Amino acid sequence: MKTILVPVGSSKNAKSHLQYAVDFAQAFGAKVYVVQIYNVYTKAGTMIKVDHILERESQAFLEAHIASINTRGVEVVAKTFKGKLIDTLEKVCNALDVDLIILEPRTNSIKDEVYLGKTSGKIIKRTQIPALIVPEGYVYKPIVKILLAVKSAIIRKEGVLKPLQSIKNQFKAVVNILLVKTSYHIEADFKLNDDLVGMITNTTVAESPSTFQAVLEHYKSNSPDLLCVVRRKRGFFTKLWENDTILKKDFHSSTLPVLVLSGLK
């Protein structure tokens, strides 16, 4: 894992979040890009050119933001971009060869009941970029135990497990898998390929209506430092993704980081 991207909003948690990202990056010897994406909506007849003003102010804000934390010798670069959030973010990640996005749950929302705000929710829901969601105020610590929760272990995409493998290798972490047997289960869903077999220490099979429900029932007994789930069109966050905003009452494991892999298929 060589390149990490951290989108910055206006939350009160932004400083501690960036510190976590830098501490995490230091363990990997990774470079960190701290970015803001802005868009300009101008009214008809407006003569004032505001693009360069927003870009300058955004760049100055990011540089001050970086200066407020201990960068621990990690290379941290401030970047500002103009455009629509998701399209621009995907282009930036491709151009910078980003391995992982580290997200705040709420980059702008101030509502206490919110787990994922609209901005973070959009990034998780509408992109295929691997992302690590870090709880507010969470202090970096090495990852000792990981819980991977899936209802199908069929893997067709090359490299999809790379972020998980990198974290496991770096921290010498134990990876346990929770295989969720739903009413749509087929036998092939639980056949682990060689990459997974070589990664997993313990396997638990749970019958449940959804991966989400199974995680709520089993993650505490596993005591993981990291929960790992997979993006699917009808997967883990289905219940939560009806809207971009996700409430804490609907996601009780908001006290540990969540690694979201791109779809396996």
Describe the protein:
- Helices cover 29% and strands 24% of the residues.
- The chain is built from seven helices and twelve strands.
- The strands form two sheets. The protein has a ten-stranded mixed sheet with strand order 3-2-1-4-6-12-10-7-8-9, sandwiched between helices. A two-stranded antiparallel sheet has the order 5-11.
- Residues 107-115 and 238-248 have low confidence and may be disordered.
Residues in helix, % = 25-40%
Tally of contiguous helical segments: 7
Please tell me the overall pLDDT. 83
Rg result: 19 Å
Beta-sheet strand percentage?
15-25%
Low-confidence stretches: 107-115, 238-248
Provide the succession of SSEs.
EHEHEHEEHEEHEHEHEEE
Which class of secondary structure composition applies to the elements? Answer: alpha/beta
Strand elements, count? 12
What's the story with the biggest beta sheet?
10 strands, mixed
Shape: globular
Strand order of the largest sheet: 3-2-1-4-6-12-10-7-8-9
Compute the separation of the termini in Å. 22 Å
